[in-house]
Every structure is written in structure tokens, then in C-alpha cells.
Amino acid sequence: MKLSNFKYNLPEKLIAQRPAEHRDESRLMVINTKTGDIEHRVFKEVLDYFEEDDVFVFNDTKVFPARLFGNKEKTGAKIEVFLLRELNNEMKLWDVLVSPARKIRIGNKLYFGENEALVAEVIDNTTSRGRTLRFLYDGSYEEFRETLYSLGETPLPIFIKREPDEEDRERYQTIYSKHEGAVATPTAGLHFSRELLKRMEIKGVNSAFVTLHVGLGNFRSVDVEALAKHKVDSEKIFVSEEACEIVNKAKKTNHKVCAVGTTVMRTLESTITSEGLLKPFQGWTNRFIFPPYDVVIPNAMITNFHMPYSTMLMTATAFGGHELIMDAYQVAIKEKYRFGTYGDAMLMIR
């Protein structure tokens, strides 16, 4: 499978710049991967395709306001810092991306906020764009985090061409987000409302929660034609015994297991027993799922409509079939579905 297999022409006007008025009222394309049949529905009707004791698996990671804007010492040059992950809370060390990277050297100090509310020192050049910063702050750790996050912006993806606002603080987060650590939201989960989760519960459809903290890999473009040569950055995952019990019971009783998003798909496929069941795990994964790939755990998947050449598109086609899903994208364009983070959704059922 080659990178060029994931090219398609996406009209810019179809890239959603804002979320739907109500989370569960996005459009939903439903694809039967066995027959190739396509239906057009509204997302809140998704439960029509699930029965009692089926399972939805959600990623309960929580996004933090990861984008900071500051100034370089002496020159005052404007610097954008994207927080990736905390390395050491006592020393206040963070892995970050810096832009423009060429202007930043080890030893440089960066200033953030009015009256230099936060100061950071560059202590390491980890990659061509990445850096390690040590924040210099005399107060408590809690006060430091509060200051850091008050200065941060919601890290909207670059194809949303506007400044983040107060609405994004809520809508660029799933309603079940719990464990902080992501720099991008698991977008498929944005369609679930409290009302929809309550209807799931009443119908007897079960929920299982896993965690994958979406990191730098979500922003890296694939720059090799042969996908097997692409390296994915490791991301932290957590799969509990409780989640395994819920998923494995559904597997053993031939019920549906629906992965809500590509991050859930990668998490589930990263920790499998020899019998094809899910096992508890806490650690890191760099699983890259692209066709051809035999998916083991889920037999249904919800995902958004992704950008050309993106790894998320590759994972979706690995589940639904490359030709079928790429054809479905052409249908979505013709029917004017909304693409991207705040766009519409696709349900694939095997």
C-alpha cells in the first residue's frame, strides 16, 4: 500500500470550521462492509444498528490547552510553543514543538503572558522541530499548572482556519473525557451527547473505556511512499481489566464491539491475546494500522471523514476495505458531508 493510494480531492468548503449545533445531530454515513450498501442517517440514530449487550469502546483521554504564544528573550521575537507531554513535574520539564524552530537554541529563555507570568528555558534540542523546556516558576506545582493552562489555547488542527474561542474549550472535548494528557481530541467521540449515552444505557448497550493520549504522531505527515517505512511516534495507552471483561464478554457471545475512533482501534489492536481477546495493558504503542490489516477485536467502527494522506484515513480503510471506503469518500463529497475534526461521521459494520 502506497501513500498515493490515499489521495483524493477535497473541496476546502467541506472542511468543517465549527461543530454542529448539537453533538449528536451531525450526519452519519452507515456502510455495510460485506455488501457495500450505504445509508445516510443522523448520528443520534446510530443505536438503530446496535442491540442489547453490544459494546461501544471509547477513548476517555482529555485534551489540555496545549498551544502557547510567547516571546524570545532580547529580540522579543514571537514564538509559538506546542506542549506535547510533561516529562518531570518536579523539574517542570516538558517536550514541546517550537515554531519557528530555527530561531531557538539551547539556553534561550522564552517569556509567556502579561508581565512575563511564565518563563521557560530551552535545555535540549530533541528533534529538528522539538525541544525540551524547563519552566521557571517559584510557586506550587498546582499554581504552575493553573498558570500554564490559563495561558494556553485549545489546540485546534491547522485545517480549522480560525482562532479558538470559548466554544472550543467545551466542544473540542468529548463529554466523557477523564484522563488528561492529549494534545488532540479523539474526534469520533465528539458526536456523543449525554442524551445519546443515556439512551444507550436504557437499550442495554454497554460502554468500555480505554485511554490513548493523542500525541505528536497525530501531527506528523507521512513523507514516504511505501507506508511500511513510516514510523509512528509512541503514545501512552491504558487498558483496564474492567474494559477487557466487557469487550471479551461481547466477543465470546458474538455481539458487536464498536471502536469509537481510530485511537480506540489502535489501542485495542495493541494488546491482544493469542486467542484473539483483549488483555490489560499500561504502556506505550506505536501501532500503525493501514491496509492490508486483519482487525482482530472490533467488528464495527465509528470515525470521522479524514484528510487526504492522513494516517487516520489509512486506519479507516484498513477496517472497511480500501476501495469501498475511498469510493464512500467520493459519495460523501457528492452529498456534501462535512470533513475533519468538527465534521460528520461514518459507521462501518462488518
Write the layout of secondary structure elements.
Layout: E1 27-32, E2 38-42, E3 55-59, E4 61-63, E5 67-72, E6 78-88, E7 93-99, E8 109-112, E9 118-124, E10 130-136, H1 141-151, H2 166-171, E11 179-182, H3 194-203, E12 206-212, E13 235-239, H4 241-252, E14 257-260, H5 262-268, E15 281-285, E16 300-304, H6 311-320, H7 322-334, E17 345-349
Parallel strand pairs: 1-17, 3-12, 3-14, 4-11, 14-16
Antiparallel strand pairs: 1-2, 5-6, 5-8, 6-7, 7-10, 8-9, 9-10, 12-13, 13-15, 16-17
Helix pairs in contact: 6-7
Protein model, in words:
By secondary structure, the protein is an alpha/beta fold. It folds into 2 domains: 3-63 and 169-349, QueA-like (3-Layer(aba) Sandwich); 67-151, Beta Barrel (Thrombin, subunit H). Helices cover 20% and strands 27% of the residues. The chain is built from 7 helices and 17 strands. The chain has helices at residues 141-151, 166-171, 194-203, 241-252, 262-268, 311-320, 322-334; strands at residues 27-32, 38-42, 55-59, 61-63, 67-72, 78-88, 93-99, 109-112, 118-124, 130-136, 179-182, 206-212, 235-239, 257-260, 281-285, 300-304, 345-349. It has a 9-stranded mixed sheet with strand order 2-1-17-16-14-3-12-13-15, covered by helices on one side. A 6-stranded antiparallel barrel has the order 5-6-7-10-9-8. The chain has a two-stranded parallel ribbon with strand order 4-11. A hairpin with a 5-residue loop joins strand 1 (27-32) and strand 2 (38-42). Helix 6 crosses helix 7 (322-334). The protein is globular and about 65 Å long. The mean pLDDT is 92.
